[in-house]
Amino acid sequence: MLKFTIQKKLEGTLARAGTIETKNGVIQTPAFVTVGTKATVKSLTAEQIRSLGAQVVLANTYHLYLQPGADVVEQAGGFGPFMDWHGPTMTDSGGFQAFSLGAAFGNAVSKVATGDAVENISAHAGQLAKVTDEGVMFKSHLDGSKHLFTPESSMEAQWKLGADMIFAFDECTSPTAPYEYQKKSLARTYAWAQRCLTRHAELDVDKQQSLFGVIQGGRFQELREEAARSMGALAATADFPEGFDGYGIGGSFTKDDIGTAVGWVNAILPEDKPRHLLGIGEPADLFAAVEAGCDLFDCIAPTRMARHGSLHTADGRINLRNAKFVTDFTPIEVGCTCYTCQHHTKAYLAHLFRGDEMTAATLASIHNLHFILRLVENIRESLLSDTFHTYKKDFLERYTKK
RNA sequence: GCGUCGGUGGUAGAGUGGUCAAUUACAACAGACUGUAAAUCUGUCGCCUUCGGGCUACGAAGGUUCAAAUCCUUCCCGGCGCA
């Protein structure tokens, strides 16, 4: 159901540019996948998402399962039609919530660890997700009710949500998890991957959806490579008539080694399947990940940061809530072609943020998404024209210099 | 004019003899955010500091006390009631 074509490879690296054909349209890769967790890109209408040139929207199984329920979304014809998005779609499996509502809940831990903030943080009573071999027991963050997610139930829910591309149910581990735990978890995620393949094959007899397996292994080379080998080997066989159509690379990283860790994996994964780096979306990380062979990225950062007033510019991020912007009547970025920069000044945005006006979130999200979508498009163009290295160098020099 | 209640840090508003440079909220000033628990969270928020502390502060001025934002006196200002 999914056709991946490589158009061009960048010599000496794992990078490639290509296309992914889905029944809802073609994706030019590398591509940034816009996150619409609850079948909405926060603060934006579907029309605005289209205007931004977004190619794919990714929704979340855990969130839509809880509200409004997978059955409701199925009745709507899938989450795409439900939200009036008619292009390619993806759903995440709920595996990330094993982390965000589990080990990370109430802790100052994110999936990308910075510096040496990788000390052990033990499980605590308040967390809302508990992982066992059977699946993940969630306590709803909405009403406290309990829900067991298993590889099978995730496949069933994702089937109802109806995305073109879906992910196997995995355990997203914490960067604070020690080797022993990562190893144990990896074995579990592998077993779950097999269960996902089996259940998905039963559900999707007409091959409507493409299933991506998820590579874990934390920050450990040995585990990452083992995961890539074992998951890569889960191709179409008698046991698994379909095999995986692509791969997600998930879990935790250290800020400095995203490219490295991703490279370990992509050097091993089958070259002819698309690779999606889950939850990564800051400029430097995108360059590193493309160079290390990734084709797709999704990230909440552009929209969340936008809502919090943090805006991308070619010269780095700025915080629109800062006093200096109150009377700055220039656009966020001179020359930016996004709607916001074409029509509004920093002073106006600063005013909207200070007044807690909803429009601040919308206008800021438009700018940040435009910025990241264009960035990944430009990266793709630079691959096709063999100018990746200079583009990367020029962009990052300017973006990171203060 | 008499009576009465009240005047606290940018604002609102706690505190009513020591543990008060003064709860809290908002505002302000910065920071964080990477498969969305997030229009969220964190820090700072009188002045100075060698971070031990020092100094000035709760309408003003006096006073009581070892000790006052807290008690007393007078004054100034505001609300309300009666004239």
Please, what is the average pLDDT? 94
Side by side, the strands of the main sheet go 4-5-6-11-12-13-15-16
Look at the structure and give the CATH class of the largest domain: Alpha Beta
The number of distinct helices, counting runs of at least 4 residues, comes to 15
Indicate the CATH architecture of the largest domain.
Answer: Alpha-Beta Barrel
CATH topology title of the largest domain = TIM Barrel
Q: How is the biggest beta sheet arranged?
A: 8 strands, parallel, barrel
- Measured as a percent range, the helix fraction is 25-40%
Structural class: alpha/beta
Q: How big is the Rg? A: 20 Å
- CATH superfamily membership of the largest domain: Queuine tRNA-ribosyltransferase-like
Task: Domain count, please report it.
Answer: 2
Defining traits:
eight-stranded parallel barrel; single chain; globular; 40% helix; 18 strands; 402 residues; 2 domains; alpha/beta; TIM Barrel; RNA-binding
Written account of the structure:
The protein has 402 residues and is of the alpha/beta class. The protein folds into two domains: 3-95 and 147-299, TIM Barrel; 311-400, no CATH class. The chain has 15 helices and 18 strands. It has helices at residues 46-51, 61-66, 70-75, 79-83, 95-103, 151-161, 179-203, 221-232, 258-266, 283-291, 301-307, 339-343, 346-354, 358-384, 388-400, and strands at 3-9, 16-22, 25-29, 31-35, 57-60, 89-92, 112-113, 129-131, 136-139, 146-149, 165-167, 210-215, 246-249, 253-254, 275-277, 296-299, 310-313, 316-319. The strands form five sheets. It has an eight-stranded parallel β-barrel, surrounded by six helices. The protein has a three-stranded antiparallel β-sheet with strand order 1-2-3. Strands 8-9-10 form a three-stranded antiparallel β-sheet. Strand 8 (129-131) and strand 9 form a beta hairpin. Helix 7 (179-203) packs parallel to helix 8 (221-232), helix 10 packs parallel to helix 14 (358-384) and helix 13 (346-354) packs across helix 14 (358-384). Mean pLDDT is 94; it is low at 116-122. The chain binds one RNA strand of 83 nucleotides through residues 33, 35, 37-38, 42-43, 58, 60, 63, 90, 92-93, 95-97, 99-101, 104-106, 108, 110-112, 128, 141-142, 167, 170, 172, 214, 248, 250-251, 253, 255, 258, 276-282, 285, 297-305, 307-310, 319, 321-323, 353-354, 356-358, 360-361.
